[in-house]
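Whiteboard transcription, Tuesday session. T.W. wrote the structure tokens on the left side:
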């Protein structure tokens, strides 16, 4: 074979070899592409299946969320309904309890203002104290229910801090002397004179903590300490009592949990304190609870405030004598209590059994200066009677109307005031609450007294217009009967007041001045009654005021003697 042929043959073989390799490579590429396409299709199918499963899972989750949301809303509705039913039940029960309790507290308070043998006075004081404790318990249960329902309200006003503390401490002076405990108050220099606070709520917390300290302390001291920094008022109540066990500290702020003296209270006080602090944006905690003594602290964010404009006391400008009042009250016990309380104020109201009779009396043309309406009455209840009074063309549309109720449904007071009542009184009704309501009505710039002529300026203590307006032609006969009793009783009470003033027995001073104030008001001695009212508000001033009181009382004796001799 020639060289050329050999060369051509080798080239052909090389070409075929390369072609074979190319075909093999193409087959491998095709096989790889087929494998990749198959894998890609498989992965696409897996991804699609995953997406489908995810979509199903998301739909299932959405269904579960919707179901859970529905169940939560249903649970909230049931809880809200349960709370409303609980509130209604507690309100209804409290109404039934307050009605007889009103008679117990009202009548025992009136008895304490009268002359009683020491043994009987002790029994009546026990009755009054026990009934007051029961009233506090009812209020505590209502407070807890109100807080659970989210109905607690806070109303801050400018308050002078040292006066708030003084008023609360004075409540415990008598108990501190009885138990021989030292009651201390430390007010830091950095505490502002005035703070913006809800005084009633602050006092409720402080009183509860001090009361707990007294229940659990038999010897040593109880200290109240106040500090102010960075807009926060820190109040501490420290005692040397029985202390708190470590396992109790974690649960003492829960409702119905108790510590220390377990024979007193039901364990609501600290739970209420915690809720009140939270409502005011603050906190309360037990800073120390050891075998000997404890320390409770509550911190409230309170802004500083300016001193409010001076306001004259109502008692300085109000004269209740001759006030003509109509009362609508269906309960005969409450009727007797109200008559006795009004008698202490020197007033003699007319009482009817229901709202319809009150409306008939008013539309008959008789004049009245104020109307007191019980809310729950037969025929026409208090609210219906008020609306009828406001709509009647035969009754003056500015006639002051006062609601009296044993009901404590949440926001009831605001509802009644919005309805058109001028004042709101809650049972059990205390004499001071009644007096304050009447004084606020008479002191109102819009109040117009009726047909009774009132003597506003007098040179003597004795005001004959009072007796004339109350007893008419029998005024001198009634005066002759009342004057000797009044003089003997007042002389004895003023002597006891002097002894209490020398001993700084502030609780006794307040009780005696309260009694003398009522006795003077019953005799129409407004200026002398105001004098004792001032002492009742500030018992520490009693000793300095005694000289003036004795002088005025001597003059009063002469006036009485002259009047009796005529």
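and on the right, the sequence the group agreed on:
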């Amino acid at each position: 074979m020639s060289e050329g042929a050999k060369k051509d043959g080798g080239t052909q073989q090389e070409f075929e070899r390369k072609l074979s390799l190319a075909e093999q490579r193409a087959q491998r590429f095709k096989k790889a592409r087929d494998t990749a396409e198959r894998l890609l299709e498989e992965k696409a199918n897996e991804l699609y299946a995953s997406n489908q499963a995810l979509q199903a899972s998301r739909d299932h989750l959405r269904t579960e969320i919707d179901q859970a949301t529905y169940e939560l809303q249903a649970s909230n509705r049931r809880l809200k309904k349960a709370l409303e039913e609980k509130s209604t039940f507690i309100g209804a029960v409290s109404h039934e309890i307050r009605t007889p309790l009103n008679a117990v507290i009202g009548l025992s308070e009136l008895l304490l203002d009268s002359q009683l043998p020491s043994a009987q006075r002790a029994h009546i004081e026990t009755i009054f104290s026990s009934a007051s404790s029961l009233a506090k318990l009812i209020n505590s249960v209502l407070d807890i229910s109100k807080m659970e329902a989210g109905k607690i309200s806070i109303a801050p006003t400018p308050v002078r801090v040292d006066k708030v503390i003084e008023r609360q401490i004075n409540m415990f002076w008598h108990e501190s002397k009885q138990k021989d405990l030292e009651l201390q108050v430390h007010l830091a220099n950095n505490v502002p004179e005035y703070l913006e606070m809800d005084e009633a709520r602050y006092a409720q917390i402080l009183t509860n903590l001090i009361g707990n300290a007294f229940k659990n302390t038999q010897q040593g001291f109880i200290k109240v300490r106040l500090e102010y920094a960075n807009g926060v008022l820190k109040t501490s109540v420290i005692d040397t009592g029985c202390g708190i066990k470590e396992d109790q500290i974690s649960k003492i702020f829960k409702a119905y949990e108790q510590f220390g003296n377990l024979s007193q209270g039901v364990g609501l006080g600290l739970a209420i304190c915690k809720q009140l602090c939270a409502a005011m944006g603050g906190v309360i905690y037990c800073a120390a609870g050891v075998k000997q003594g404890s320390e409770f602290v509550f911190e409230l964010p309170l802004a500083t405030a300016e001193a409010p404009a001076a306001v004259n006391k109502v008692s300085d400008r109000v004269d209740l004598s001759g006030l003509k009042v109509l009362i609508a009250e269906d309960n005969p016990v409450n009727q007797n209590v109200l008559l006795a309380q009004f008698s202490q104020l020197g007033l003699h109201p007319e009482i009817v059994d229901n709202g319809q009779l009150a409306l008939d009396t008013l539309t008959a043309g008789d004049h009245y200066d104020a109307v007191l309406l019980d809310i729950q009455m037969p025929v026409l209840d208090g609210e219906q009677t008020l609306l009828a009074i406001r709509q009647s063309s035969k009754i003056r549309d500015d006639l002051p109307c006062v609601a009296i109720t044993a009901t404590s449904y949440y926001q009831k007071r605001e509802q009644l005031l919005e309805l058109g009542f001028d004042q709101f009184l809650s049972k059990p009704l205390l004499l001071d609450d009644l007096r304050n309501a009447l004084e606020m009505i008479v002191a109102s710039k819009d109040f117009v007294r009726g047909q009774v002529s009132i003597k506003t300026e007098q040179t003597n203590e004795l005001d004959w217009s009072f007796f004339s307006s109350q007893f008419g032609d029998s005024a001198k006969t009634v005066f002759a009967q009342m004057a000797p009793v009044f003089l003997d009783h007042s002389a004895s009470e003023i002597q006891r007041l002097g002894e209490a003033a020398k001993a700084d027995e502030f609780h006794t001073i307040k009780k005696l001045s309260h009694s003398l104030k009522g006795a003077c008001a019953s005799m129409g001695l407004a200026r002398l009654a105001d004098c004792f009212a001032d002492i009742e508000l500030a018992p520490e001033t009693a000793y300095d005021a005694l000289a003036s009181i004795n002088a005025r009382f001597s003059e009063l004796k002469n006036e009485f003697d002259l009047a009796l001799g005529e």
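Someone added at the bottom: The CA atoms of residues 222 and 239 lie 4 Å apart.
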